[in-house]
Design goal:
The protein is α/β, with parallel strands linked by helices. It contains 10 helices and 10 strands. It is an enzyme of class 2 (transferase).
Length: 327
């Protein structure tokens, strides 16, 4: 049952435009979420429109909400993250994975390759391990997650072990913070996909400023209430790096050349629309055979990912014949 009513006005909820296979279209069934995750009941409120929701300004509420979503929709029974670490929105993360599945299907007669033969590398998997959890449950893919943060990796390992997913999800430490693929991919590795949610701020101050703008846009700035700096949390490496998103994805593109024959499709989210064209131009200069920018939308928020491959048509056909399950 609802616990309290929010006193803060909220904008009308926009209709989410999610991938057709995304499990999170439409309004959430809060009784079912609470049944799956009873502690969720502590955080349900009534918004100004009389609809059940949660207080997205409360980091604990967001964390438990994610736990409930993962439990109800993906059968992930055990999920938690350390205080202060990034708590990502599950629907948007699922959309990226579905978009990548479509990318593979486009090369496979419209059929999505499924199962453990499909390997995916998650750059910066984080304490939440969200992409491997959803991607494995949806498509049976086998994941390798990398991160530079020891605490994040320890959290991800706990999640993987608690859900009996050790054979499906492997985790690797990146010891060189400015490297992306180097030090992670071994010579024998082959990945159908790489994915990444890069840090997109250039400094801690910029990240904090972005959070304040978000509160203003949502109408949540209230002088009488002390709001968290980031309701979705996030450590430094998750939120910002030198040069911001543009520098990170440029470095990723440059490094990908050395692993051109070990990956079918490289990809990365690009949060800032202005970074797309420079990245695509850079990839073309680096010799990528195909570069695609694919849009995603969740409500009023627009996002996209850029994917590229160095394999020509014959090499792609050989890869599929050798590695992908027959359908």
């Amino acid at each position: 049952m609802p616990r309290k009513t929010s006193s803060q006005p909220r904008p009308a909820e926009p209709k989410a435009v999610l991938h057709p296979r995304n499990r999170h279209s439409g309004r959430y069934d809060f009784p079912k979420l609470i049944a799956a995750c009873p502690e969720m009941g502590e955080y349900v409120i009534l918004n100004p429109y009389g609809k059940q929701s949660i207080d997205f300004a409360n980091p604990d509420a967001v964390r438990v909400f994610n736990r409930a979503l993962l439990r109800q929709f993906y059968g992930i029974q055990h999920w938690d993250i350390p205080a202060g670490y990034l708590c990502p929105p599950v629907p948007g993360r699922a959309d990226y994975l579905h978009g990548l599945a479509d990318l593979l299907a486009a090369d496979n007669g419209g059929v999505i390759p499924r199962g453990a033969a499909v390997r995916v590398l998650d750059i910066g998997t984080g304490a939440n391990c969200i992409y491997p959890l959803i991607g494995h449950r949806e498509y049976g893919w086998r994941f390798t997650g990398s991160d530079i943060d020891a605490t994040a990796l320890a959290s991800a390992r706990t999640i993987v072990a608690a859900n009996g997913l050790d054979k499906a999800i492997e985790l690797r430490r990146q010891d060189a913070p400015k490297q992306v693929f180097k030090g992670i991919l071994a010579a024998e590795d082959r990945f159908e996909l790489t994915l990444c949610n890069p840090p997109f701020h250039a400094s801690q101050a910029e990240a904090a400023s972005g959070s304040q703008r978000k509160w203003r846009n949502l109408g949540k700035l209230d002088p009488s209430r002390k709001l968290p700096k980031l309701n979705f949390g996030g450590q430094a490496a998750e939120l910002w790096c030198e040069g911001g998103e543009a520098a990170f994805v440029a470095r990723m593109a440059d490094e990908s050349v050395a692993f051109a024959r070990q990956v079918y499709w490289f990809s990365t989210l690009v949060s800032k629309g202005g970074n797309v064209a420079p990245l695509m131009a850079r990839l073309q200069r680096l010799g990528a055979r195909q570069v695609q920018a694919l849009d995603m939308a969740q409500g009023q928020k627009k996002s996209r990912f850029v994917a590229w491959t160095f394999l020509d048509a014959a090499e792609q056909a050989g890869w599929r014949a050798e590695r992908w399950p027959r359908t």
